User: Fold this.
Amino acid sequence: MSTSPTEAKTALAREIRVTDDALTVHLADGRILSAPLSWYPRLRHGTPEERADWRLIGEGEGVHWPRLDEDISVEGLLEGRRSGESPTSLSRWLRERGESR
Assistant:
């Protein structure tokens, strides 16, 4: 399934759910997007409390998790983009959290 650039730009998130396995985003137009949590290492390593602490940004164009320093755009989800974080950056972040990779 392909998504036109217009659809991606106008799709807005309204509700977010993060489980141990998936990120699910409910869009204002009724669609529901789901992606494996393994695509987003910071969310995967976050606690349930950190995952539940999210904010919509750009009136729903994206989602920000302040305690995890993670931002995910609806456009990126529609295009099937995974986290672009480098392994070096993720390792440094995990060390700062007191975790090992």
